[in-house]
């Protein structure tokens, strides 16, 4: 489970005191052995002085609005082009002939893309029906929330909101589902959270698409909401961005859409906004 704000404050107090001690020449017991900041905390990225410059120092609605203005500038691709893109963005680092599947972590041949049992297909992490945007260029083809997934696992997930609990999902060890929610395996929890919250910032109802927003419900159906926000926030903290997720963000930015998922670069912005 993510640590409380008080616990986070305690983690940072010792390094701050140590820095102060260096300035005044006073020793702080144990300061020399202070641990490095945990993964996912206020990282400074290579894009802070350029791409994210206008977001500096902002929080809440102001930060959300500014990030929307930044990331809405993107190159849109067709739904058929998503197949090609996913074969690059989700390539298995251990086997360049395969992609890594969401929800299961399975490595599967790039050639097995399709709709049959044993194939992988294009999973909309923000379910298409939550806002009814389909597969048209825009939210329906946005690579920042499209991932390869096993056909049958994708069908089990359907358009369910995300939450904890349920029965084990066949074909996706560590994932669970019930009648109205889906819980991905631990290694994918943060990825899912950051994809959902990216969509909520990117699509604000200003360019012909629905205003997508997170909420704390698991019965959203066709309304443009996705839940459960309180759980997604926990997952963002529990499972910080790893090398695979960061590489994916970079490829989408450099080779395809030319926009970034800000919550991969700065996962602490989730708490700053919500």
From TrEMBL:
Keywords: Endonuclease, Hydrolase, Nuclease, Signal
InterPro entries registered for this protein in UniProt: Endonuclease-I, His-Me_finger_sf
Keyword Nuclease: yes
Endpoints of the signal sequence: 1-33
Any matching Pfam family: Endonuclease_1
GO molecular function: endonuclease activity
Protein name per its UniProtKB record: Endonuclease
Organism name: Streptomyces tamarix
